[in-house]
Amino acid sequence: MIFATVGTQLPFDRLIRSLDEWAARNPHVDVFAQIGQTDYTPQHIRWEKTISAEAFRTNLENCDTVVAHAGMGTIISAAELGKRIVILPRRADLGEHRNDHQLATASRFSHLNGLVVAEDSKHLSRELTIDSNSLLDSQTDTSTRLAVSPTLISEIRWFAGLESA
To answer: Which CATH superfamily is domain 2-159 in?
Structure first.
């Protein structure tokens, strides 16, 4: 299953529309998304505008891949569970955020094994197709999972202001 989340602050139509279009071409893949307050209504994925923290955690635990904006909370949660994560950073020039801090976040963590930064909708689609083909082939290749040390997770939490030094 693919679990997508856009966070709680702003809509992210570009991500949800891209995922929905991909799902139309890949109906064999189960996709669930937390889509936020958006005007776009997905037609090919299961979705909710908002979900509880418990539902977020359950979906995260049960998914194979996370698709998300470059939110620190989502990156940390995926890392803690060793989930592959494909992020599509929000861009200020497209009116998706007030600045480009998500591009900076994506750049900073792009070296992590299991974290893929999609540059645009086409790149997101390619990464999801690669991932869904791996799942269909029943591969259990753990090299695609986000694997970071507890120390790095703690450092990320500190960097994001979620923990004190």
So the answer is: Glycogen Phosphorylase B; (3.40.50.2000)
